[in-house]
Amino acid sequence: MSEPALAAQATPGSGASGQADPIGARRTFAIIAHPDAGKTTLTEKLLLFGGAIHLAGAVKARGENRRARSDWLKIEQQRGISVSTSVMNFEYDGWTFNLLDTPGHEDFSEDTYRTLTAVDSAVMVLDAAKGIETQTRKLFEVCRLRDMPIITFINKMDRESRDPFSLMDEIASTLALDCVPANWPIGMGMDFKGCYDLFNKRLLLTGKENRNLEPEVIILEKGLDDPRAAELLSAEQRAKLREDIELIEAACPPFDLEAYRQGHLTPVYFGTALKNFGVDELLKGLGLFAPPPRPQPSEKRMVEPTEKAVAGFVFKVQANMDKNHRDRVAFLRLCSGHFKRGMKLKQVRSGKPITVSNPTLFFARDRSLADEAWPGDIIGIPNHGTLRVGDTLTEAEDLRFTGIPNFAPEILRRVRLSDPMKAKHLQRALEDLAEEGVTQVFRPRIGADWIVGLVGPLQLDVLAARLGEEYNLQVGFEAAPYETARWIDAEDRHDLEQFIEQNRGAMADDRDGAPVYLARNAWELSYTEKKWDKIRFHATRERS
Ligand code: G4P
């Protein structure tokens, strides 16, 4: 299918229409990848092409510089990884992109999951030599829960890679997704010559490479029939390409925009982020195909982005992003309405009004003041702990957005203070950090120690470092006799009371006072579940 035909199916994104239809021009997305696949490099290049940065290296500088710029916390510096999530906003060809960064370490926190609740689509980056890796699969599963549309970018084609057909096959078979290549590589590694643009039947070839500039891309509008193709590609390369195209046409379904938007089909781009090849095409693909802000589920009904009244939900709260601003910022995903600075919004949980006088839009670490925002945009609202993850803010109606869950922790630890006199202080600190989603806290019904619950081991280091740095609390963690936790409820209140009574030693309350059953191991959990069939055990809990 040609680009104009695809564009007719997709939302147009020309500058003019972007102005006329700010909602239709918005694309809010995240990049999912296994560590080292090239997420940081691709992010940087997307920003470069989007004109948001002018020098390569602003996102990922080397050595000390890199740490100082992109890592917010000391723990990140020590580990050399990025733990926090950031939001970046840029424009390209009439579209406004909001890119939400997700931590790429193997060990991920609930932050990652929640960030994925705030985007409308995702780009999945694969290393061409490795294909689908463990983390890719985990993140993909989270996207699938929400039928999120995914565009695939197969990176590092400038290195020795796996056969492109085997990569396509792997995506199709392990993720159960139809794959439609948008472009097709010509050679790989040292012999990587560029790609054939299957949607527009053009050749995109790498030209001269300059160390400081992006490589020249030669576009041959007539594809393989262009007389210059014979000059630029060997007979062997052309023959192989013709053969590949024939096979693709026979084996792949045609591109179907609806199937992509429903999360059943992924367009696949090949390229190399490091050498800037394929990044431009990926951005255009995102603009043309990725969905504009989608309707968001609330308890009562779906909320359409075109509705007049402003509504949004908090998917992340972060403290101390900058030592100079010792504030806390709630990240609000706007779902409907035209937001203007100074607006008064209601926090539905408390019923209290909040005047949003100094909201921020994000570009990496720089914050700029937002005067207005549209559905799909993320705004940062500085506050002193009033706003919590899962909160809905609205202009009028009492609605509550759903789908921002707590996840059952996989690691449970007792927190031990080196100075027992600071117990109250610890309680406040843990509650603060729980609000941010750094940890979950459980108060056992019997015993005085707090139990923290985490989704991955790295969160323990983050927690200890933050307690030390920000609250001056030296803590150690001890194994708790539990391995897993489940939120419980029952149809009949008496059944629930009876369960709690008979399992008092294994009961705790989460920070909102919801009852939680702590199991010593998976076997005990399954035994209890069978024995108490009137009790419902939940691995996730919607935030209240
Ligand atoms: P991540 O955020 O997904 O963890 O990956 P990141 O971008 O940090 O990339 C991981 C490594 O892969 C980096 O090399 C990066 O330069 C390299 N890389 C990314 N894209 C490409 C590509 O298209 N081609 C090639 N050949 N390499 C690529 P590093 O040596 O670990 O880091 P650095 O010293 O280059 O910063």
Largest sheet: 8 strands, antiparallel
Q: Give the integer mean of the pLDDT values.
A: 83
- CATH architecture field of the largest domain: 3-Layer(aba) Sandwich
* CATH-assigned homologous superfamily of the largest domain: P-loop containing nucleotide triphosphate hydrolases
Counting H and I runs of at least 4 residues, what is the number of helices?
16
Give the beta-strand count: 33
Global outline: globular
SS-based structural class? alpha+beta
How is the largest sheet built, in terms of strand order?
A: 28-25-27-26-30-31-29-32
What is the percent of helical residues?
25-40%
Explain the overall architecture:
The structure is a single chain. With about 550 residues, the chain is α+β, with helices and mostly antiparallel strands. Helix content is about 30%, strand content about 30%. The strands form eight sheets. Strands 28-25-27-26-30-31-29-32 form an eight-stranded antiparallel beta sheet. Strands 2-3-1-4-5-11-6 form a seven-stranded mixed beta sheet, sandwiched between helices. A hairpin with an 8-residue loop joins β14 and β15. The N terminus is likely disordered. The structure holds guanosine-5',3'-tetraphosphate. Guanosine-5',3'-tetraphosphate binds next to α3.
